[in-house]
Amino acid sequence: MALNLTKEELKQYDGKDGHKAYVAIDGTIYDLTDIDAWKGGNHHGLTAGNDLSEQILNAPHKKSVLAKLPVVGQLVD
């Protein structure tokens, strides 16, 4: 079941206190919950539960990692 989440709703998926860790990139929401580097919802100063479209462009891996991540939905207005 695909989720449609607003930026405000996405914030609850911050990877903390048992919540799933989701991020949005270019309107697509990815599940980072089982990614070791994102345990606790944080990774190199970034926080799950946010739209990281701009930040991924500065990451060493750019968008190359996205193909490996489960897609769970779309970011909506």
Report Rg: 11 Å
Report the CATH architecture.
Roll
- Topology order in helix (H) and strand (E) letters: EHEEEEHE
Q: Estimate the global geometry from the Cα principal axes.
A: globular
CATH C-level class: Alpha Beta
Low-confidence stretches: none
Number of domains: 1
Total helices: the number is 2
CATH topology: Flavocytochrome B2, Chain A, domain 1
The average pLDDT is 95
Description:
This protein has 77 residues and is an alpha+beta fold. It has one domain: Flavocytochrome B2, Chain A, domain 1, CATH 3.10.120.10. 10% of the residues lie in helices and 26% in strands. It has helices at 7-10, 53-56, and strands at residues 3-5, 22-25, 28-31, 42-43, 46-47, 71-75. It starts with a strand and ends with a strand. The mean pLDDT is 95. It comes from Secundilactobacillus odoratitofui DSM 19909 = JCM 15043. This is Cytochrome b5 heme-binding domain-containing protein. Residues 5-76 form the Cytochrome b5 heme-binding domain.
Jot down its keywords.
single chain; 77 residues; alpha+beta; Flavocytochrome B2, Chain A, domain 1; four-stranded mixed beta sheet
What's this model, at a glance?
The chain is built from two helices and six strands. With 77 residues, the protein is α+β, with helices and mostly antiparallel strands.
Annotate the secondary structure layout:
Layout (H helix, E strand, L loop, with lengths): L2 E3 L1 H4 L11 E4 L2 E4 L10 E2 L2 E2 L5 H4 L14 E5 L2
Parallel strand pairs: 1-6
Antiparallel strand pairs: 2-3, 3-6, 4-5
